[in-house]
Predict the 3D structure of the following.
Amino acid sequence: MLLTAGLATGTARAATTGLVETGSTLLYPLFNLWVPDFMKTHPGVRVTTQGTGSGTGIAEAIAGVVQIGASDAYMSTPQIKKNPDILNIPLAISAQAVNYNLPGLAGTHLKLSGPVLAGIYSGKISTWNAPAIAALNPGVKLPDHKIIPVHRADGSGDTFLFTQYLSASTPAWNSTVSYGTTISWPAVPGGLGAEGNPGMVEALKQNPYSIAYIGVSFHEQIASAKLGTAMLQNKDGKFVLPTAKTIATAADALVGKTPKDERISLIFAPGAESYPIINYEYAVVSARQHDAATANAVKALLTWAINQGNAPAYLDKVEFKALPAAIKRLSEAQIARIH
Amino acid sequence: MKRSSPFRLGLAAIALVIPAALVLIVVFLIQYAWPAIFYNGIRFVGTIDWNLGNLYANPVIRHGVEVPLNANYGILAFIVGTLFSSFLAILFALPVAVGTAIFLAEAVPARFRGALSMLVELVAVVPSVVFGLWGIYVLAPLIAHYIGPGITAILGFIPFFDIHRSTGSGFGLLAAAIVLALMITPIIATTLYDALLQVPRELRESAMALGATRFEMVIKTALPTVRVTLIGGVVLGLGRALGETMAVLMVSGGALNYLPDTIFTPITTMAAFILSQLDSAFQDPTGMAVKSLAEIAIVLFIITLAVNAAARLLVRGAGLVRNV
Amino acid sequence: MRRRLVSRIGWVLCSCAFLLIAVPLLDLVLTVAIKGASAFSVKLFTTSSNGVTGGLLGAIVGTTVLSLGALIFAVPVGVGAGLYLSEYGHNRLGAVIRFLSDTLTGIPSIVLGYFSYITMVIGLGWKFSVLAGSITLAIMIVPYLARITELSLQRVPVAMREAAYALGAKERTVAFRIVLAAGRPGVITGVLLSLAISVGETAPLIQTAGWSNYLWTGKLTHEPIGYLTYVIWTFINQPNAQSHALAFAAAFLVMLFVLAINIGVRIVLRRPH
């Protein structure tokens, strides 16, 4: 009975254009908030969403299996050279926090810097009361205990952002380990690899004295697990928390430097109030779509996303921020290239 | 009996679909991974360090092949992780499965057998990812707070079993082995249970008539006749353990670039590694990353072949008579 | 006396073994049920998901379709192969088939998924589809079906076959009417086990069946489809509690699904124990 109902609606829907989106799990919740409302005003389009991973989003968009790939990371120059028809279009701005589980210190915001974090994740700084950390946090009673650095075992945009922060702030890290959605983590005794952001939260919860990098969308989980959030040192040397203001400041600081193809890292932005770990969430789309109907549907969806979709009603639910006006114009210019 | 009746041939053709599928997959993997096989050479299985390289820098040409800067593909750590976890899993699963099968077939009154055996089969129904979730929320804390200290208390004089030499978190080799053991036990147990039920009555009765206790009858008479089924079940279970991805990925602790020195240290298995790295590998413009992952699949295939061959020799060597 | 003691200890050990598998299972089912409890309502079964919340109707239908599809491909091949191996497979060819079939179980599900992605989704141009998903699942479960069928049919006494042949029955009749019929309970166990394995798989489906928030439209290709295991894997990674509850609810449903089939088939067959 269900089958015939399904078949019947299938034929009725034959006139609609189907779009498939896949990719970043960070952008996935937001896309799912957008799609139902978008489809209400565009009844001829049916959008399916899937959360897989940034790399999958890019690969499947290039292969033409999906029309829109969502990615936390822009494509690399070598990858763009091999696929010149692919566009990276920012849709929103997201940020990342560094969280830790320190018994007794949950209320305090520890001050940490890129070089210190690089030291922790390479094993050079192994205890919480090491001089490097104490120097940044005078007056805080740091425990004499080994640090447990937790990293993502799966390939992830979060790793990309965190390692870009480490690379941008610490030349030694940049020349040895560098950045990527997955990197060759130095073997640190006591280090852990967790699966997915919730896996990171769980690893923090279960292991006192651990530290991890987690997307800001998870701030509720962090708060209810009584985990701490660090104040990170930005390019100007100031320590800031991820707030709407610090994220927006960082984004605005780099608007002038954003190229036409919008592939730019927002990490370690200049400005006293800038939060150092933010990024654009990209739609990876081919400028050449299968047919005109599909191209128009894609353009409609992306345009809707950066206009109506950038309203606080949607973004606030996932702790994302809206695109600056100048970036919106750049995105619209790229969208116009889709045919 | 005609040696090659059309029925027999037809059935053979159907049966050949299975090896054909396997050959197709392996050929696909080999031709896909060939550039990586050529580039990596024997270092692939001998080195511990795995580095996808800097995927955002321009690729370089080494040995005539285009690879990312600083890329280095070594999977020794994953081979060790796979073998250790699967071996331990079988070590845990075998006695539990045999004991369970005997319990169900011999100790439980006939009317309860159906329900209780379904309980065991239900374990096979649990999706891999749910085992992983249970592992994260229940098993890992259990190991960290109870099982781990327990093992250390009894066996701690052996460095391998000393929890204090590791992070102390529950994620690691032991968690992976336990989860795997739980997943493969029903495969071994249910096949063994079915076989035990079909052991002929005369065999049982004659043993009892000779004065054996019920338990002795089971161990010395019934069990030996089902040894082939048992080994068949173990081989299937081992195959599942070697190829298991999600559950292991979630509880094994994601080790990279080091070998485990205790049973509580994080590990990574080849299958879980392929799953976790595939997404990032897609971003490699040279394609070497995905090809190297395909090469891992080929190495895993060879290991599975070797393990199965060893199991075959075990059956042949024991000189067993089958019940046909 | 000592032998009695040893025997008694033996039984105790066996019951401990059973507990070692039963208790974790019960704990697991309980954990899943409790964590998923808040998601259970009528709406769960009547609405489809909207990506992060909603109901599970589309996923339930999808899992059913994909698993049935997998069985349609796997049962004829698997049971046929098992039949061949147990009846006529005591030769070189049989040994090779058996060996390679066992090896197939060791191929990680993600590798199968990637293989199907390249060959069927892209190569044959099916894109995300029911067909690609079902065939991939079928490849996964067919070796289990074959081996368990063989192992069960092997245990059918030789005498039964010989009697049938002596009465002049043809090979096909002996195979189907005698051997398969007598070994039916074991074969059904194999089918159910394979169904269980297929229903619980995620990795091979993500790149072949894709995912869809909508009810299946009946298309076999060029249309992604939803399935319960995706909900478990993806929703658990979402930052809100609703999605988590839904993930556990989906896990509970998966197990219930196969349990229900199990019980149903048992009742219909009324296993002769």
Notes: Confidence is low (pLDDT under 50) at residues 320-324 of chain B. Chain B touches chain A at residues 49-52, 54-59, 70, 72, 132, 136-137, 140-141, 144, 166-171, 249-250, 253-258, 266, 268, 275-283, 285-286 (CB under 8 Å).
